[in-house]
Amino acid sequence: MSKLIGIDTGGTYTDAVLFSEADGVLAKAKALTTRQDLSIGIAGALDGVIPGLTASYGDIGMVCLSTTLATNAIVEDLGDRVGLVLIGFQDTDMKRAGLGAALRDDPVLFVAGGHNAHGAEQAALDLGSIGAWLEGPAAAAGAFAVAGLFSIANSGHELAVRDLIVELTGKPATCGHELSARLNAPKRALTSLLNARLISIIHDLIDSTQQLLHARGVGAALMVVKGDGSLIAAAEARRKPIETILSGPAASIVGAGYLTGLKDAVVSDMGGTTTDIAILRDGRPRLDENGARVGGWTTMVEAVAVHTIGLGGDSEVWQDPDATRLHLRLGPRRVVPVSLLATQFGPAVHAALDRQAALPVPPMDAGLFAVLSGRRTTGRPADPVEAEITAEIAGGPAALPDLLISRGHRSALRRLVGRGAALIAGFTPSDAAHTLGRHCAWDRDAAVKTAALFARQRTRLGADLAEGAEAVSGAVIQAVIEASANFLLDAAFREDGDSAETPSAHPLVRAALARRRALVELDVRLSAPIIALGAPARTYYEDVAARLNTIAAIPADADVANAIGAIVGHVRIIATTLISRPSDEAFRAHLESGPKDFADIDAAVAYVEQSLRDEVSRRAATNGAPHVEIAMERDQATAPVAGKELFLEMRITATGTGRPAFA
Helix or strand or coil: residue 3? Predict the structure, then answer.
């Protein structure tokens, strides 16, 4: 039986696993994620698992990739310049669904055309202005998006414009109806716009990953995880990169279900930067019925419903400046753990920490460092102070007390960090865990020294924050446990329909969590187990579960659950066709090839269902799954008229599910 490789590019680590469906995980490895070039981290993780092969590289049957790249690109507003063609739209439509804001200053062309709800032509399609627009305002566009009114009822105009753009430019073009069969033309336009912007980014990732595999003698098919946890072929991901948003969280939920065997649970995946909470129901991730929400945009992409908070192993630990005693805050800023920084720059880090520790009173910013990120950035040229700081940290990290010699230097460093050119290293929960011996991957001595300096910070009353490194580290661990439990509880309340922002802050809930024993006793608990994933899971989640009166399932390979979820996923193809009733004499099926009328509903349904079976089977085979189980669902809308139910429309959805044949 062939072996499989799963890869997950997370915010801090890139994970890889070598896997067999008969024997499970054969080897696993981690490498630091290199945001400036993800292929470097992928190569490091791959090289960690490939030696686990007992046969030739040709024994690898499939490689599956989950990635945060598309999500991060949307959040950070990155990607190609895009040309947008809107068919039958009005200027005012740009204000809907955030379409105008998402377009930025990219070129847009309004052309006559579009259809009505029954697929009839609303106006003749005007292709005359497209050529001049492509040679003029849109000449610098790297990709194009095309959206037409009611294209889900008749895609003819979108397809004609797309084909013309590809013919004249040779560049990729995305149609709105290819990404969603739901109503809301501006939202479909937004989704196609974001998809076009991501094409070159995902192309580069897939190209570099395939080159890395081929260089190591791995010729297996590459699959990519979608935001709903299913798999698509790399070629499909190149065409529809928007479908890979929230790929990482989706893979973690699939991996959680596989590793624990649980069908219903709350899944918490704590990474270095964030914690993602999602719900596993009947063995599948719960999907967001409103579409994936990323970077302030609500798309029409079907993806896992995720609750995210800026709390992770690399969250910055800081003292509330207004507190008169120890009152720790966590995040939301991510910093590099000093214990990790010391693994690469040990002598410089230890020398700075020792100098600061020898002073009677530690300086402001003690235990904090600045280091270049290595990331390519764009923006205005650095001013002289930014250039000075960049030169100072070019050869390695610099301690902030030595670097920030004026207020101008502090502002300049803040700008460099904001643009992603520099990173801050400081005291984190990961350092606290190293100090207490709960984690041992990095430099424990550096963690202890950093924790000791942090403990010597002063409260408003002038007292030390804590009695030493272990005391303050214990307080950090407890703060993470309490924050994680509160976040889980808030997510569970929202899943139950509670609209309050932070129900865990309610006095009654706080009293229950504190186990207050008085005349009135309160209890609060999660009714489902917690599946805890991520490298920090074992440090915190037994205590988190106890706080919420439930149990924690922490599987043996919780630290690489995302990579495992990428491997064990299924191909899932969904196709939907609308049947409308434009007149009393006809039932109209809105097919990809164009509308087709039938005299009775039974004939229309039979034809549509067979067409959907054929389409799902074809698309599944294209994505590596030649054998799928297909389920049909009919959703009919009627209205009472003269004592009878009048047919309005019916949506028929076919869902095909199966494992890739490579596996």
Answer: strand
